Amino acid sequence: MTNPWLEIPLTDYESHMALPAIAQAQMLADGLVTALQRFTPDTVAIVGCAGGNGFDRIPASTRRVVGVDINPDYIAAASTRYGAHISGLELHVADIQAGPLPFEPVELLYAALVFEYVSLPTALRHLAQACQPGGHLISVLQLPAEQLHAVSPSPYRSLQTLPPLMRLVPPDELAASATLHGFTQEAEYTTMLDSGKAFATQVFRRTSG
What we know:
Blueprint: H1 10-18, H2 24-39, E1 43-47, E2 64-69, H3 72-82, E3 89-93, E4 106-112, H4 120-129, E5 131-142, H5 171-180, E6 183-192, E7 198-206
Parallel strand pairs: 1-2, 1-4, 2-3, 4-5
Antiparallel strand pairs: 5-7, 6-7
């Protein structure tokens, strides 16, 4: 079966996420900026980068920026938008479940609304290989919300192909699996949006090679 993420047009995804009633694009970009300000890494990889949400806010002091997405059209759009503007930009079409990731390890991995669509053990094994010892993984998980759809209704109907693939992951489950793959959780906090949806951000440190 074809992964639904390969069939969703980038314009649909970005328009959906930017709707005022959803407002998740801004939240995810803000989360990336917060992580960069906290850890000031020389190298960062954004997993599930789509068309480069938040790339325009990455400081020039970040020497190497890696974008990863399963959809080649998304990566092509990110290249068109930012290839000439971000020094040291690397873009890769890759499935984090399929095998080792095609880039050298980085100091910071940012994976927002990614783990809902993958096998945790497989994805975390490959992400651990892509994170330098002492580096950090920042995750953002959607939390369950009573009387709200996991994928918010919107005019962009292509996104309604996602619910069969999507599984809301409890933060404790992610933390337990991350621990098995050489990460230690350092922090966790919750963000509540006006839509009523809540999201858990977890900060993990890579503790072993």
